[in-house]
Design a protein that fits this description.
Alpha-D-Glucose-1,6-Bisphosphate, Chain A, domain 4; 5 helices; single chain; alpha+beta
Length: 190
């Protein structure tokens, strides 16, 4: 559905691929070597889109990549609250079939329906944080465009190397698929 746009470092849009990204309402860039900024416009009012980020039953419908599910989704959506979840590969055709990926989010600030700020961690099934993995602070902004919402995700890493490590692990491809899934759900809910 959406082409995976290449990251650009704070420069003007000049080539066809970046213009295609504008048409599909999907932008990606790295700022100051430590910030990954993603932007996308969804065809849903802000209040409704925000709900898709705060309710576990909604997250289970879109928060995963192709061939993966969210079998565990424990959420306490409030500042200081925790979202502990597991993504599991259920596609027998994928090399990762049966693999589980546990994550833990600790919410720092929530201003409904405008913003969610959290720390994002790799964890284990018990919720113990994997200190050897990068753990960005993420700010999600929901910008009201009337019948649409511009979603801006700004992930701050402690170093350029930490950001590069998660990019090398496929973070951008995973986010692209996840946000595509969100777009499909938005279309279904219209």
């Amino acid at each position: 559905m959406y082409k995976n746009c290449k990251i650009k470092n704070n420069r003007q849009v000049k080539n066809k691929e970046e213009k295609l990204c504008q048409i599909t309402k999907w932008f990606q860039r790295v700022e100051n070597e430590r910030f990954l900024v993603l932007e996308r416009v969804y065809d849903m009012p802000r209040d409704q889109l925000f709900q898709l980020f705060k309710e576990p039953e909604h997250l289970k419908r879109w928060w995963s990549t192709d061939g993966w599910e969210l079998p565990v989704c424990n959420m306490d959506f409030r500042p200081g609250g925790v979202w502990h979840y597991c993504m599991k590969c259920v596609d027998k055709n994928q090399e990762e079939y049966g693999m589980e990926s546990w994550n833990k989010t600790i919410y720092k600030d929530i201003i409904e329906p405008e913003k969610i700020v959290y720390n994002d961690y790799f964890s284990d099934a018990e919720g113990n944080i994997n200190e050897s993995m990068p753990s960005p602070e993420v700010t999600m902004e929901f910008i009201d465009l009337g019948s649409q919402t511009k979603l801006v995700s700004r992930s701050e890493f402690d170093s350029a190397d930490s950001l590069q490590a998660v990019l090398d692990m496929g973070l951008l491809e995973g986010i692209t698929q996840t946000w595509n899934n969100l777009d499909v759900l938005v279309e279904r809910l219209k």
